[in-house]
Fold TetR/AcrR family transcriptional regulator.
Amino acid sequence: MTPRQQNRPNPARRSEASRQAILTAAFDLVGEVGYARLSIEGIAARAGVGKQTIYRWWPSKGAVLFDALLALAAQGSDDAAGAAGAADAALPDTGDLEQDLKTVLRATVEELTDPRLDGMMRALSVEIITDPALAALYAERLDGPMRELKLARLRSAQQAGQLPQDADLDLAVDMLWGVLRTTWLERSRPLTAEYADLLVRTALNGLRGPAHP
Amino acid sequence: MTPRQQNRPNPARRSEASRQAILTAAFDLVGEVGYARLSIEGIAARAGVGKQTIYRWWPSKGAVLFDALLALAAQGSDDAAGAAGAADAALPDTGDLEQDLKTVLRATVEELTDPRLDGMMRALSVEIITDPALAALYAERLDGPMRELKLARLRSAQQAGQLPQDADLDLAVDMLWGVLRTTWLERSRPLTAEYADLLVRTALNGLRGPAHP
Amino acid sequence: MTPRQQNRPNPARRSEASRQAILTAAFDLVGEVGYARLSIEGIAARAGVGKQTIYRWWPSKGAVLFDALLALAAQGSDDAAGAAGAADAALPDTGDLEQDLKTVLRATVEELTDPRLDGMMRALSVEIITDPALAALYAERLDGPMRELKLARLRSAQQAGQLPQDADLDLAVDMLWGVLRTTWLERSRPLTAEYADLLVRTALNGLRGPAHP
Amino acid sequence: MTPRQQNRPNPARRSEASRQAILTAAFDLVGEVGYARLSIEGIAARAGVGKQTIYRWWPSKGAVLFDALLALAAQGSDDAAGAAGAADAALPDTGDLEQDLKTVLRATVEELTDPRLDGMMRALSVEIITDPALAALYAERLDGPMRELKLARLRSAQQAGQLPQDADLDLAVDMLWGVLRTTWLERSRPLTAEYADLLVRTALNGLRGPAHP
DNA sequence: CGATAACCGAGACGGTACGTCAAGTCTTGCA
DNA sequence: TGCAAGACTTGACGTACCGTCTCGGTTATCG
């Protein structure tokens, strides 16, 4: 028997309408007022919901944001390359690794430039930085699946001989998307398609192995 | 004539003791209770200072944290490699770029593992993500000088023929320290000396190799 | 035709077990946590009953308390002199009015000193003060019958020539029990048998007519 | 040295305007919406004051009501016979005890008939019934002084030979005003001037007559 | 005698108010 | 005037209950 958590509300009786309203309100509000002025009371009011309905189902503001993003991902599962792409999606694989990566990173740049997604992602980032539990959840549910897609594309390239057999693919992912993420978070330089291209070129060089051993 | 700010208190009459007490209290508290529970009132109380004394000299909690880190950097200016190293410091230059970078990144890993610095840096990161003005200040006063040191070391290697003339050194810095930063912020994997080494090796490959093969 | 209330539950199908459990829980809880912390949710939980079962049969918290006291009275109908004595009981009538009244008021003092009854009566008093409808119900169902018993005893004394024919017996009841009640409610002095005795002596004097016309 | 309470706010810096606004708002609101719907938030909002300002200076809603009534008493100190009469006031003393008492009790009836004072007094009564600490405060600060005035008048009558030397004057006060209070609280009969007169006549009989015949 | 309507337990829901914490502003009195 | 102290308004926190409203699951008549 699967162990049951006790004292928890019964998910079977959960109001789907309220859940949707809350996630939508959270997403809308974070885009309108930003993270600093985002409040649970505000979300509840906007969603036309009692505060307790939020506290009943989510442990923290961050968890709500997280679910809002998850819902967004599930909804927009057609956009294979989307940062919030669904689990069954796949990165493009035309055989040309560099070109494919550029396509994907340009799309990511596009997303992070959209003010609503920018606000949402920043808010979630703050929560993740602050709350290790949420960070773990994020790693498992959002970052994990996404990373798997990326790794799959790189493995495909590896099998095609475009990357060395001993390349650290995990690190490759960090280099490509991690750098992009830091640059965006710290606003250290404008995010452009050119920047994405440069990133891909340089990182791939590093992975292809020593040019001058 | 330098443009004058009006309605501002007179810095000449500022109490240095209070300033020091506030910065110390901020640093201590962020290490003890974390960012989420850090409050201006708490800092003022710990510093034995009126709240107004904080509001008089700093525009936001983030600005206090920022100054606290600046003070820390100034104080520990002997540690050339420290993330908080002073402006006149320099990165080690033994002629062996890879080894030097490993040394520096290992030191950075060390710092980010220290709970007090970890707390402080996370707190500041949150503020920077949220507040573009603070991000700009950070870029100018802390990240900028540090980046200059890093660029200097890379330029030195470039002149020594260890890096191509057309290598994008700014991007190199992003790849090395930016990846480290993301990994730390998201706790996506444990920060170790080995990870630092791997990072250096791979990134240098990317820079050394032909960008346009 | 007797007009029927519509939309009301069918009393025939009412669960007696639940009714008893609710009244018992209400009585126990008011004794344990006091009026201020008494809640319908608490009563329902303690009684192992759904909230709706309370709302279905009682219009307010006060009404529950009222019924709880009524049930108590019906249950303890042997104690003729009890404040919660049953309808068919009678006050003692030995022929000695003063002595009989002292007996009854001492018993009342005894009851109001019992912590559980004290809590219950205070709670009910609060509801009565606040809610005129409940006050009317109380007057009709609890205070009324009790008052009738008291009046009966006084009338008996009147017929025995122990009280003037024109004495206002209603006022006499107020003077005896009303004063006791106020003293108890306001805790303005300790409730003792001696106090009861003094009360009886003095009030009877007032009723026996002018000593110095 | 008088012992000082610690951790308490400094009364010297208290805002008199806020204090007045709160007491006025409490009095007005209790008259408008009644005790059941009276809330601290409501009082704060009506007074244009932060909730914390109420919690800073009063321990409970009852304490606010108490002070509101005290303020009312101090303000209306001219009305010597008022239930809220000031400490230096005195009951009328024309030499005719019965007439004087009728005058005073009629005035009390008048007050308790005023909807605003009725609401206020009911609210305070509920709090007093519930909270022994407030009951003690009430006894000391409001009921005590008032009772002293009443006792003074009765003592004067005693010296004039209108009451026996061994009459229990405290009980006399209970009989006169206590009965009135219970009748009012329980709404057991309409409060009229006639009722007040009857009460005075009967109670005085009890006191004048021989306690031990 | 099986359907079908009701009560019942449980508890999710939109709300109101609670009492607390902290934000940022303002005032007072000391140095 | 800078400062410590702290009272002020504001607003959000997370909790407790309110009274209403489903949900399945027993009963317990009635067709």
About this structure: The radius of gyration of chain D is 19 Å.
